[in-house]
């Protein structure tokens, strides 16, 4: 859970809940509710602020426990494929775009 990862990283940095909230510019009560898993879907903006103070990449907060970077990237590729399919582009059209891109690179 995101909240538990934030809490673990915060404690590792020896920051109190108040210190992290203050440095990140977020409400202490909201941060507390995230850490206790009362709130489940913090915004990307909130996570970015927390990640900056904790000196971690935002993906370290989002990634599921035990999930490696490759697995996370594979999920991003799957999502991209879904978006391409939803846009109506065919595989041949995507390949054509890639071919044109590579010829200009």
TrEMBL record:
Gene3D superfamilies hit by this protein: lambda repressor-like DNA-binding domains
Keyword Cell wall biogenesis/degradation found: no
GO-annotated cellular components: cytosol
UniProt entry tagged with the keyword DNA-binding: yes
Gene Ontology molecular function, alphabetical: DNA binding; DNA-binding transcription factor activity; protein dimerization activity
Keyword set, alphabetical order: DNA-binding
Annotated InterPro entries: Cro/C1-type_HTH (IPR001387), Lambda_DNA-bd_dom_sf (IPR010982), SinR/SinI_dimer_dom (IPR010981), SinR/SinI_dimer_dom_sf (IPR036281), TransReg_Diox_bact_type (IPR050807)
Top-rank taxon: Bacteria
Name of the protein in its database record: Sin domain-containing protein
